[in-house]
Amino acid sequence: MFPFQVNESIVINLIQPQERDALYTLIDENRMHLREWLLWVDKRQSPEDLDPVIEMWKQNYEDQNGFDAGLWFDGKLVGMIALHYIDWKNKVTSIGYFLAASAEGQGIITKCITRLLDVLFNEMKLNRVIIQCAETNLRSRWIPERVGFINEGISREAQWLHDHYENIVTYSMLSSDWNR
Length: 180
Hints:
By secondary structure, the protein is of the alpha+beta class. The protein has helices at residues 20-29, 31-35, 51-62, 108-123, 138-147, 175-178; strands at 4-5, 10-14, 67-73, 76-83, 92-99, 128-134, 150-161, 164-174.
């Protein structure tokens, strides 16, 4: 599946150990931007902190249990997209993503998710894909809304984020929705 060409400018590919420093630089340069919504950012204080994480990502992919992959735009690492745990019995997964502040507003994540949904529904034969976003993270919420996901509702105070609780909005797309 990888590298996965989204279009002429965007490639999704698994993060390799030799790309650890580039990934750390991306996180570090966008630390304040990402930290607003992602708790794990504070846990990545050096490139070496990524070594066990990259190994875990590799194992998850080998076990057909999702993936965490880099997003390259015009050859530059600008973010990541992930399929969290795949529930093969129920044919369900969830998508997570982040993007460098400098790469926002170009439709990169929207294009990646749109292309990825074709694979998830038509090749992997999954039935349901979920995206969850903090209710106040409007930029992140626009993505599933733009792609046509259905807003299933809000889980009140479902995530502790640094010093407060965030409501979480759950969006879903079914294979039947996608293939209409």
